[in-house]
Amino acid sequence: MKMTARGSLAALMTCMAAAGAATPAAADAVPVSVPLDAVKTTLGVDTPRVGTGVPVPVVGAPEVRHHSGDLLPTSLVPVVPIGTDLGSTLVSTPVPNLLGDPATDAEGGLEAPATPLRAKTPGVVLGGLLTAPDAGNAGVPNLAKPELGVIAPELIGTPSALLGLH
Asked: How far is 116 from 30, CA to CA, in rounded Å?
């Protein structure tokens, strides 16, 4: 199969369009365990077990806005979406003789399940510098009063935690 210059350009443009249209997908968190075995060996006491996940943020395509009637795009600093998963966290520790009886030995724990987290960076919009081409002005756009605005950042997520004995 022979690839022509036009075919390779079309393939390149298709790949760029697919990459630009991608939205951030939530990435799994990288699991991490806190090593406390040396404390248990040295002191001879049961130590807590701590495991969590380090979030891996995935950056999406910038959101560029175009309004009808404006010749230029309005996003001076575009909003960038970022997605990640806050990893599952588990902290557990032995609780001996809770009621003075060895039969009541238990394990206390704090568990926070994995939670998706979405964020958008702040952005700056600039509008009204040039209008659409004006037929009464030989097709040349007119100048307009500049407008400046700030897009507030967003943070969306619902973290939760469970505390209990088991």
From this structure: 14
